[in-house]
Amino acid sequence: MVLVTMDPSNYPLGKKNFITGGDTPVVWTNTRYKMVYMNMGHGDKVMTDALQNKMFSNAILWLGGK
C-alpha cells in the first residue's frame, strides 16, 4: 500500500527529464510481511520535520505491534 508520493514538480534538479510519469511512491508498506519502505533522501533537513518524524515513530510502533 502506497502511503506517500512525490509530485514530479518536486523532483530534484536533473531528475525531471528522466522521470516523466505521475507521482512516485516514496513511502509504502508490504503488509503481507509487515514491512515499511521509506525513501526520504539525504541532507541537512532529514529528521527536522515534525510530520515526517511522527511517520517514523508510527511506523516503528506498527512494526512492533503497538
What is the secondary structure topology, with strand pairs?
Layout: E1 2-6, E2 24-30, E3 35-38, H1 50-63
Antiparallel strand pairs: 1-2, 2-3
Please describe what this structure looks like:
This protein is of the alpha+beta class and 66 residues long. It has one domain. The protein has 1 helix and 3 strands, in the order βββα. The protein has a 3-stranded antiparallel sheet, with no helix packed on it. A hairpin with a 4-residue loop joins strand 2 and strand 3. The chain is flat and about 40 Å long.
Q: How many runs of DSSP E, i.e. beta strands? A: 3
Most strands sheet: 3 strands, antiparallel
The proportion of strand residues reads 15-25%
What does the average pLDDT come to?
81
Q: SSE string, helix = H, strand = E?
A: EEEH
Query: N- to C-terminal separation?
Result: 19 Å
Number of domains: 1
Structural class: alpha+beta
Shape: flat
Helicity, as a percent range:
10-25%
Count of DSSP H/I helices: 1
| Strands side by side in the biggest sheet | 1-2-3
Low-confidence stretches: none
